[in-house]
Amino acid sequence: MPRKRVLADLLPVHNNSHASGQISRRRWDIWILTGISLVLAIVRINLGLFSTPFSSTFLKNQPVPLSPETQADSIHVFLGTAILTFLAILSTRILYRTLMDPPNEFERINQKHFLQILLGGILLFLIILSTLSILLGQDITAPILSSHHFLVTENIELISIILIGNIITLLLGKKTATLFFLISGMIIAVVPTSRYEMVILPLIAGPISSSLALLLPGRMGSLKSGLLSGIVTGVLFLGIEISVGTPSLFTLKTESIAVIATTLLFPMLENVAMPLLEKSLGLLSEASLTELLDLNHPLLHEFSQKAPGSFFHSLAVAQIAEAAALSIGENTKLARVSAYFHDIGKMDKPQYFIENQTTFNRHELLTPRMSSLILIDHVRKGIEIAKKHGLPEAIISAIPEHHGTRIMQYFLRKSRDGSTGPADFPSESDFRYSGPKPQSKITAILMMADAIEATGRAVKIQDASPARAISVIDETLLEIQRDGQLDECPLTISEIATLKEVFVRTLLQTQHKRIAYPGGKPPVTAPSWKPQNAG
């Protein structure tokens, strides 16, 4: 189902008014920044500071006063100063928010590849910079660039910084991208042929562009963010040029080409570089999550054919997990995708899981210990299948973590009931999953959603009263907490309380009562036996 989203997927359901307030505040911020920029530009002209930091007279510490001869050009100074001031203040505000905001989910997930991605981006920029230096040293470029070669090369340098920074933003967040912008400016500073304003321009245009890349996801979003990033670059250079004097026709053509190039290059780079990086390093991005949401994915299609009961159980868990993730501001796509693939290991021996059985229960012929070994092994098999199909590491980690180190209570009790003495009395460790416990909020939500969905079907929530449904969910979550399964994830007490409310509401909606149609045959019921924690 297509969704319109900018920040909506990251906000809880009950925070619509908060989201509207944020949008309203952003609009006021833009107006305030515009006003400040205009005021500073007017003050600057009234003080007679006609030269700019980018003019030669400024370097000589000789500001040019506004004289009658230069009044005709004062409008250029005013507009140029207003543009540069506005972009500088806007970038400063974005930088402040970047430092203050907590890391997003992709920044946390892909953090282990921080150095690889950052150093790779720096290396790519050095290659571009070296290529430009070599070309400028050749005679063949002189007729083309003429005296405007600085403008052309600076546009190429800034565009390359923005494009690489946007890719880093999508994979590691704005903090890492800001570090890249800072390092890029320092690299430019040591190049003898660079003008000194290029040291600061990446920190003005870069943060604005990286924010646009996050606010406009998807294929059309990348096209829009590329266009807006190009416009920011063009306006920045245009502000510099008109603050010094009247821009030439060559300057206007160069800026127009830069806007078009950024608009086209960013979607191309994102569609080519992102999949390569994700597959080679096991990274996760918004685009890869969108692809994995497709139920026609080959692995999900195979899952639905080999273990249809487990597949539909996964769909039910996905619906509950998505609603729960939305309620506490977690990524809903990641929750749903993790739920889709969390039980793919059951494809190996589907007939040993209750949701895939029709009449005969194979566990009646096995010892409790053997039954637990077969059921626990679906975790190992699921990880193996996921790696074979190249799923991202964040999705693979949900397969063992959604079980954590929980005990298969049904088989443990059955084994203890059948023991004849202390010698053959079973240990809890023989019936525990190997873990690890949930390490993130998403896998913790998945553990709770999986247990609640299975328990809800076992006790027939649709036939129970709301009070009974709440009691069952409370008991299930309390058992998980008492067993220490949530000790290693960052869920707070208030978030767990919010999740309980969502679980009750969602479970009652998805497993509601159905009326008995007159004259129809009684429904075929599934086997009543269901091992606890077997799913």
Quaternary structure type: single chain
- Count of distinct structural domains: 2
In what range is the share of β-strand residues?
under 5%
Please count the beta strands (DSSP E, at least 2 residues each): 0
Termini separation: 28 Å
The helix fraction, in percent, is 55-70%
Question: Low-confidence parts, pLDDT < 50 over ≥5 residues?
Answer: 1-23, 49-72, 139-147, 525-535
Mean pLDDT metric? 77
Instruction: Please work out how many helical segments DSSP would assign.
Output: 21
Largest sheet: none
| 3D shape | elongated
H-E order: HHHHHHHHHHHHHHHHHHHHH
Q: How big is the Rg?
A: 30 Å
- The helix/strand class is mainly alpha
Descriptive account of the structure:
The longest helix is centred in the middle third of the chain and has 33 residues. It is built from 21 helices and no strands. The protein is 65% helix and 0% strand. The protein folds into 2 domains: 280 residues, no CATH class; 218 residues, Orthogonal Bundle (Hypothetical protein af1432), CATH 1.10.3210. The radius of gyration is 30 Å and the shape is elongated. The chain is mainly α and 535 residues long.
Short description:
The chain is an all-alpha fold and 535 residues long. It starts with 15 loop residues before the first helix and ends in a 25-residue tail after the last helix.
Key phrases:
535 residues, mainly alpha, Hypothetical protein af1432, 2 domains, 65% helix
